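Researcher: Here's the sequence for the chain we discussed earlier.
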Amino acid sequence: MEIIIDLTNENSKFDLDLDKIESFIHYVIKKEYDSEKDVYISVLISDNDEIQNINREYRGKDMPTDVISFAYNETENEGIYDVLGDIIISFDKVQEQSKEYEHSIEREFFYVLLHGMLHLLGYDHIEDEDKKIMREKEEQILEKYNIRRE
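Model: Thanks. This is the structure I predict for it:
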């Protein structure tokens, strides 16, 4: 399985290690997604203004958020690869939350990225039990990838 990543960084405020981000995406997909087809995922790193516009347009919430995921679920006999979907991350929000939760920007960024990826892979946190399962999966993957709370 080849993993095709469309990673766009519109954030100029912070120097991001794009190779590490791509490596993490590969790790999560290989660990959590079973497919013989190639896989496509898009990740956009943006700011509060952009994500607020998207949040308002698609979710009816006129406020910035940390991450929005759009799962396409184009896996049934469609094309040559599975399109998992799009993830949009507000790096502004990542910075705010890293201060609020008192851990590194890197840890918060990878948590938010993973959270968005798990939504594309079918996880959600609407029901308490589902939330517990998703949180445990997030902590398990971050721990295995050596991204810890500080």
